[in-house]
Write a structure and sequence with these properties.
About 40% of the residues lie in helices and about 20% in strands. Strands 1, 2, 3, 4, 5 and 6 form a 6-stranded antiparallel sheet that branches. A hairpin with a 5-residue loop joins strand 3 and strand 4. It starts with 5 loop residues before the first helix and ends in a 9-residue tail after the last helix. The relative contact order is 0.21.
Length: about 160
């Protein structure tokens, strides 16, 4: 069963606009791991289904975007990352139907996102419908970004 019905997309868009709508592009790009985690909670409540927090790279226009070889990921797990270091890794959400919800691609790669994606400030689509972009998972779950220190829990907010 696919979740990307017109109603689900419209509802998701309203929720994303409420949660991310006032954030500048540079803020969304810089905080993509945390914002994706936030959107995950919103989607799970809305769709009543488990949503996978997914990390990996995107392939578009003949290039790998946000690609880190497995060896690099293993190194990050062993040593963590330096404060302020740039991480070449992308995050998105994957539904049980394999549909992709990507709330940050438009901000991380504004020149490569479609006009509709920039306007909606997100992507909600099944990979079968994508003609020029493919998503390549390398890690499922937010444990990786928590362990290397890019996603932290803050108590008392």
């Amino acid at each position: 069963m696919r979740f990307a019905s017109a109603e689900a997309i419209a509802t998701t868009q309203r929720l994303l606009d409420y949660g991310l709508g006032r954030l500048r592009e540079d803020v969304v790009a810089a905080q993509r791991f945390g914002l994706t985690a936030m959107v995950r909670g919103i989607l799970e409540a809305q769709l009543r289904v488990r949503v996978a927090y997914t990390l990996g790279y995107v392939y578009q226009n003949g290039q790998r975007l946000c690609h880190t070889p497995i060896e690099g990921l293993e190194q990050m797990l062993r040593t963590g990352i330096a404060p302020g270091a740039r991480i070449s890794l992308h995050s998105w959400l994957t539904l049980p139907s394999h549909e992709i919800v990507d709330p940050t691609f438009w901000a991380v790669f504004p020149a490569l996102s479609s006009p509709g994606e920039r306007e909606a400030r997100s992507l909600f689509m099944h990979p079968d419908q994508m003609s020029d972009r493919t998503y390549h998972p390398q890690w499922v779950g937010d444990g990786f970004v928590r362990r290397i220190g890019t996603l932290k829990e803050y108590e008392g907010w």
